[in-house]
Every structure is written in structure tokens, then in C-alpha cells.
Write a structure and sequence with these properties.
Structural class of chain B: mainly alpha
Oligomer: heterodimer
CATH topology of the largest domain in chain B: Arc Repressor Mutant, subunit A
Number of domains of chain A: 1
Helix content of chain A: over 70%
Order of helices and strands of chain B: HHHHHHHH
Shape of chain A: elongated
Number of helices of chain B: 8
Largest sheet of chain A: none
Number of strands of chain A: 0
CATH class of the largest domain in chain B: Mainly Alpha
Number of domains of chain B: 2
Distance between the termini of chain A: 63 Å
Mean pLDDT of chain A: 89
CATH superfamily of the largest domain in chain B: Winged helix-like DNA-binding domain superfamily/Winged helix DNA-binding domain
Radius of gyration of chain B: 19 Å
Mean pLDDT of chain B: 84
CATH architecture of the largest domain in chain B: Orthogonal Bundle
Strand content of chain A: under 5%
Number of helices of chain A: 4
Shape of chain B: globular
Radius of gyration of chain A: 23 Å
Chain lengths: ~80, ~190
């Protein structure tokens, strides 16, 4: 990797930085790029925003529909089998 | 717990458990399996349910383990699209010299309930559009919040594959969100 990474390389670093603490050199390289690149700075912000939204969404009870009657019946039967054993 | 309880839990919490599972498994069929496995495990573990958590919280805890089990089982059956698949799609996002092909648009900051429910719909749709292996690794990390090291170990894939999958999933997800109405003038 060159002194200042490209956008493509920076997205890899920014993504990895979401998961682990980057080695010092990588961290510096990433921040150098982020300081001068509006797109990548936006990318990094949006990655964090995306995580926040998905975690909030996971706890929201709406959105997707529920079990179909068919699935519910099948599961009820399985449960009964287990209970009767 | 009486016999009634397992059936009552299905009636009271079945839909909720299904939705939580559906969000992470991206398949109706697998989500149904997860609900069934969870309730069966709940019957087996009923003696250990102290009743200090609400049934829903307790069941959701069991469900999370079942989701990971199902993802692990599924990933063993499909070849991971690590090396080539997705690489071309990534290349489309960048120019030859490594700069972004298109400027990134800022995202809006929805507050109204109608906007929020629209946003949740887009999140679900975009997650469903990822390749299954990518969607699942993404879910384990970004939705369930598991550490990447743990995910690689659980799924028995190399850390490099894990990183690549996750990074591509994030790139594609961001792109999908932007194309489906996340971008608004004047926001971050």
C-alpha cells in the first residue's frame, strides 16, 4: 500500500476498522485519506449509521409478516409430538 | 410449565420470533425452522427457565443460538462466494485508479414514523438481495453484533474470507440503500 491509500483501499481499511483495532500504520493511512476525501469520509460515517439502523431494526417488531397458518399448524403439531413423548 | 405453555408461546410469540429470525436468515423456510427449533428447545429446557425474564426475552435468547446454528449449517452446504463472486460488482463501484466511480450521496435523517417504517422496509429488502452467504455473515456481525473472530470460528471459514465477505456485503448494502431512497439532500 502506498503512502496514501486509494478510495478502494480506504474502504477496506474503514470496513475492517469497524471490527478490530487497525495496526498503527493502517490507521494513519486511513485517516490521511479520510481527511482529504469527502466520499470516503461519508462512506465511513454511513457504515456506522448502517450498523446503528440495522441493530435498531432488529429490535423493531414491525416490517416482515408473521408465520403463515400452515407453518403455525406444522409447528404446533411438532410441539405436541414432543410434549406427548 | 404445562403442556399449554408451549402452544401458548407459539400463539403469543410465534410471529415475533419469526420476524426476528427472518431478519437474520433471509428465508421464510429457515425462519420457520428456527421458531420450531426454539420452541422445542424451550420445552426441553423448561426446568431451567427461572421465570425472572419474560417468556419472550427467554425465547429470544434461545432463538439467537438457533439462528447461528442454522446459518452455520447452511454455510457448510453452500460454497462461499469469496474469491470471484462479487469481485466484479466491487470493481464497478471504483474506477481503475481506485477512486469512487460515482460520488456518494448523503443520507437523510428520517424522523416521522412513516419514513421510519419505509426505511425498515428498505433495510429488509436490501438484506434479502445480498448473496445468502454474504447476507448471513453481515447479519451475524451488524445485526447480532457477534465479534468477527467468533463468526469465523463458528462458521469455520478463514479470517480472510470472513473479511472479504463482510466488506463486500457492506459495500453492496450501502449501494442498495442509496439506490432505494436513503439519499436526501443536505444530510450526513
Amino acid at each position: 500500500m502506498k503512502w496514501i491509500p486509494t478510495c478502494k483501499e480506504t474502504t477496506v481499511l474503514a470496513s475492517r476498522a469497524m471490527d478490530v483495532r487497525l495496526p498503527f500504520a493502517d490507521r494513519m493511512a486511513m485517516h490521511l485519506h479520510l481527511a482529504i476525501c469527502e466520499n470516503c469520509a461519508r462512506f465511513a460515517r454511513q457504515m456506522h449509521e448502517m450498523r446503528r439502523l440495522f441493530r435498531a431494526n432488529a429490535d423493531a417488531g414491525d416490517g416482515a409478516t408473521g408465520l403463515t397458518d400452515e407453518a403455525r399448524q406444522r409447528i404446533a403439531t411438532e410441539l405436541q409430538d414432543q410434549l406427548d413423548r | 410449565m404445562s403442556k399449554l405453555d408451549a402452544q401458548t408461546w407459539l400463539a403469543d410469540h410465534g410471529d415475533y420470533l419469526f420476524r426476528v429470525a427472518r431478519r437474520q436468515l433471509h428465508s421464510d423456510e429457515l425462519a420457520e425452522d428456527a421458531v420450531q427449533e426454539t420452541l422445542l428447545a424451550a420445552i426441553a429446557a423448561q426446568a431451567r427457565y427461572a421465570g425472572d425474564a419474560s417468556p419472550r426475552t427467554w425465547l429470544t435468547g434461545i432463538l439467537k443460538h438457533k439462528i447461528v446454528d442454522l446459518i452455520r449449517k447452511q454455510l457448510r452446504e453452500v460454497a462461499l462466494p469469496c474469491d470471484e463472486e462479487g469481485e466484479e460488482a466491487v470493481d464497478l463501484l471504483f474506477k481503475q485508479d481506485g477512486h469512487w466511480a460515482e460520488p456518494l450521496r448523503p443520507w437523510g435523517n428520517p424522523q416521522a414514523e412513516a419514513e421510519l417504517s419505509q426505511l425498515r422496509r428498505v433495510l429488509d429488502e436490501c438484506a434479502d438481495r445480498l448473496k445468502p452467504a454474504m447476507a448471513q455473515v453481515f447479519s451475524l456481525r451488524e445485526v447480532a453484533g457477534m465479534e468477527t473472530e467468533e463468526i469465523c470460528k463458528e462458521l469455520d471459514i478463514t479470517p480472510t474470507n470472513c473479511w472479504v465477505l463482510l466488506h463486500r456485503a457492506r459495500l453492496f448494502m450501502r449501494q442498495c440503500l442509496e439506490l432505494n431512497g436513503f439519499s436526501k439532500a443536505g444530510a450526513a
